Request: fold
Amino acid sequence: MTATTMAAPLAPPSAATSGHTRDRALWGAVMLAPYVLVFAVMVVYPVAYGLWIGLDLNAYRRLFADPIFLRTVLNTIIFVFVAVNLKFLIALALSGFFVAQRAWVRFVLVLFILPWAVPSIPTILSFRVMLNPETGMVNSQLFQWFGIVEGPGWLTDPTLAFLCSIMVHIWKSLPFWTLILVTGRLAIAQDLYEAASVDGASRWQQFRFITWPSLATLYVTSTMLSMIWTLGDFNSVYLLTGGGPGDLNHVLATLGIRYMRNNALDLGIASIIVAMPLILPMVYFMVKRLSKGADA
Amino acid sequence: MKSLRHLVTTAALAALTTGWVAPAMAQESITVWFTKGFYKGEDDALLAVVDKFQKATNVKVDLSLYATEDCVTKSVGAVEAGTPPDVGFCTTYDFRTTGKWAFEGKLEDVSDVLEPLKAQIQPQALATTFLMNDKTKKKAYYAFPVQQQMMHITYWKDMLEEAGFKESDIPKGWNGYWDFWCDKVQAGLRAKGKRIYAVGHPMGVAASDTFYSFLTFANAYGAQVVDEDGKIVLDQPKNKAAMIEAVKSYANILQRGCTPPSSVNWLDPDNNVAFHNKTTVMTHNATISIAAKHLDDMNNPALTQEQRDQAKKNYYDNIRTAEFPNKPDGSKMTNLAAVKTAVVFAEGKNKKRGKEFMAFMMKDENLRPFVEGSVGRWFPTTVEAAKAPFWTGDDPHRKIVQKQYTDGTVPFQFVYNYKFTAVNAENVWAKAVNRVVQDKIAPEAAVDEMIARIKQIAG
Amino acid sequence: MKKIIDESKLILIAIPVLLWTLLPIYHLFVLSISNQESMLAGKLWPDDPTLQNFQIVFKQQHYYLTNFWLQMFNSFFIALATGLITLFVATCAAFAIARLHVRGGRSIMNLALATYLIPAAFLAIPMYKAMGTYGLLNTQTALILAMVALASPYAIWVLKQASDKLPKELDEAAVMDGATSLQLFRLVYLPLMKPSMVVIGIYALLLAWNEYLYAFLLLSSEKAVPLAVGLGLFLSADDAPWNLLMAAGLLYAIPPAVIYYGFRKNMVAGLTSGSVKS
Reply:
């Protein structure tokens, strides 16, 4: 960008010719077309098709008759509630750690990002092998050091296995949200803290009256986003336990795929549609919020 | 910037053309989906058949090999989407989909190919492919009986001896049999500080091993689920009581800590894995694939000589294949046989050629190398191949398999009522066992739930 | 004194954070250099660390690895194609919406945002069905299109925000000089958007490289699938070659990690303008 372009005349082009307007309209349409095409082909048609299949009320009857369905809905709610809140409390705390002005803390941050930077498959399967009750590293070490023959059934006890899925989910997505909150904290003016500590405010008071008010909006927005995406977390459950033991630990994201495998695609679609009342209000709210932010 | 734009355009074009232009230029072809074999020999034999067929007909065979579970998932999706291959052969079709597809008219009638071959195929194997089509309201042959499987016991003789027992110590009676492994053998090895389990007992809901094993138990207790007309009879007091016993017996192995805890999550290969690791002393498995792996290993050039020698010793000396114990009432066990079916899809683009391919495949000279390529994992469905020296020779494992088949077999419920493929797919059996084990409900209540659910699905 | 206490407090936090973060990655690494025996014994460090697993992977000597390099190439191809096509689609759209103020642009923007927010797992089955109707199942085109559809909404959003920050006067000056919309795009817009475009290209590339669910649903032939699906196949192996799986997995994880660290600065800058899907 050169100085001349910046210094260009500021007079509005009130006398814009109709040719120019037409040119803009034409090119606007042409350039928007690729995305509109992708959107129509990959989103509109599939969703419409899905809804059309989802009109079959019989599918819902069968869905609700399936004993694992209600359990899955309950699992999903608990999963999202626990995973998201736990994740954000930890992220909030850790973001305080990572803003410390130390070279080594920045190095720790670089390592801390790893779970987010690497693909899910190898790492989640690594968890899976590590937590295997017989041959996994954790129980083998328990046996070797403490002589515990039957270590905890990390992936075989339904409750533990569910908690492990939550743990893996947090492991994978914590770095990202921590980074977001770190960015948020870095945007807070440092002199506020300096002034506060001159006034003798405690750490807690600094957090309570300076950090939190500035972070609150970001925190809430992020929590909401994370809730929506956590609802769709397929990998943490599927790759770790496959929804087991005994199909007791499915969430809605994995249940649909399970129905598909069992030759019941209509139930898969129905289970997704059932989740929509949960998701769409949040999506609507977030779209409003984000697009408002975009205009600011 | 110019170069980036150029790159974007080129890549976009490249990506679009690879998908869309390529098929237009191809010669006549058929699409064939098979399960990827557990051993190289199976795939090699299949590729040889494909090669021969291509040379004989000049029709290109687009062969895709999928892992067991993916294979059936892909097929189901493709049938739903109306884009199936021409020929499909997944080793879990019979359990999951063949009957349903036939009923819904998704399969091509292959009677014209099978009728002339009738005399060459074992009758009970052939019978499983004579299926109802709801569209035509008639029964016809809708699948090819390619190969079959049944339950066997496999154990480590060397581990048994390490525990302080001889093979002749193994009881023949039902309860005594399981008590022997769980109480004596496991205790014997645990006393030596080994972290092992006596039995590899599949309990995962996503594994077909689990319902195969469970139904073997149900069969042992005489719990009849359907009659030959496909009507559910499990709620009759006698059958229900027998089913409760079967659930108790099946759950008991885990409850007494006799199978690895991870068995509740096992997929089909996992009891094999645990056995190969020597985490378990014995397991029940619906093929002799476990022993066969060692046979495969002893001829595997990628391994070291030492590893090959060990595999040979394992196959001939250390690993034993055996029959199930007698039923709880003392009578001889009759085995559930599952016939693996290949199908031609009604909506296949080139199903005529697909049928030709299967007719070609079913010829003894083509089918036998494929079946035998699995080194004993699958048993033939043709009369001749079952009598071949491959089975009757002095191979210690195949001999037992052959004997079990000649003792007679019984079919699965889905042969009588196709909706049992859905019952199996949902694994109602494993669910009931898991309810008892995980949720600690009474076996009686679990069986009530089981019956209710079966009626919902298959009633 | 206070300094030392502060420092040790920080260290007390850092230790568990690092343990938690690195344990599974350490485990992955240990398995990849273990032989079968040490692996099944669950050793903290293998008895005889070996590079043999990597050798087997490189030479594709295991049954489940016969297409390793091909699948690695597939991953590259799919990721690269997704990255470039997304860039093309999103840059054009962002320009049309933010600079040309095309009619309906706002609604498209909001619809795109909604697509971005709905979890991808829920769009998988409908998209799979639709691909069946298009006859694109089992082609890499299907996966690339799906990934473009999943990546472009966020891409458009970020690029639109970046576009909004460019001074309006630029366009006006260009228009005064008689530039057409296309010239404006080429000569003014693209050069200024370069930094954001790098971030977006990488975002789409990594999204496609890391994807498992869609790849596994839309593709099946062992020769067409990306490495993620190839690795998933290991779950059906009956001799538990987890050490090979981890060796192959490590090789699969390195490119995105390297790219991420190479572009860390840009990525963090990109992050502040919105949020990348986790």
User: Anything to note?
Assistant: Chain C touches chain B through 40 residues (CB under 8 Å). The radius of gyration of chain C is 23 Å. Residues 64-272 of chain C form a domain with the MetI-like fold fold (CATH 1.10.3720.10).
